[in-house]
UniProtKB/TrEMBL annotation:
Family the UniProt entry places it in: Belongs to the binding-protein-dependent transport system permease family.
Keywords: Cell membrane, Membrane, Transmembrane, Transmembrane helix, Transport
GO cellular component: plasma membrane
Name this protein carries in UniProt: Sugar ABC transporter permease
Organism: Rhizobium sophoriradicis
Amino acid sequence: MPFRTRSAYAFLAPYLLIFATFWVWPIINSFLISFQNTRINPWKYSFQSNWGRLFYDPAFYNALYNTLIILVIQVPVMIALATVMAVMLNSPLLKARPLFRFAFFAPVVVGEVAYAAVFRLMFSLDFGVINKMISAIGFSPISWFDNANAAMAVIILAVTWRWAGYNAIIILAGLQAIPDDVYEAATLDRVSKVQQFFHITLPLLKPIILFCVVLSVIGTMQLFTEPFLITNRGGPGGGTETLGLFLYRQGFTALNFGYASAIAYTMAALAVAISLLNLWVGRDPK
């Protein structure tokens, strides 16, 4: 091996060692643990204890259902909203555009605990500002955290508020990469702005939007903070418990690390499968 190659690997060795210790080995070890019954001492191999349990555990299916509901409703709404926001931010008619771009991106840098606490206070039954507004227009206050559907709506609103601006900035970067000549030619051909949006902007933005969708799918499959903090650990009665929260409950509350590992690999497999499906649906026809 040439000296320069040996030198390069010598400089990379500390990083590769840390990477293997804290990333590669935990992934491999977690997979091995998923085949062991960790409720007994010493741990013993038992496929049925973890992977077999997934097929008949109603709590797992409840968490999977809640996660998919958020995925199906929240992600399309958020991506559509982010696209509209990006178009608005890219408009030359908008004054102080840097200020608005920062304002839309700001929710991402807000601490998760802080913003979750704010949302919980906003939707409080007794003194929340949302119920105050509802009462002001003559309707009865809603007990947001005592009804599973209402609590799910709060989770969807919170996640959308936090990540719509982040995705809008990514889509905005894609918008700014579209040459102005394309729009100028369309304008000369008397193509309306609405037609330009649907027939020029959206097709050219498709790779960027697909990228945002894949990121959002992966994030939704790992959703933990919002149901844990806003709806008090997935309440009411598990109505907002997600796969991420279910994994936490099995691993760190029940100390069933084998089952938690199986859930983690199931989440990863689902995220990969759904992401590949999105990429396949959004592929360019040959």
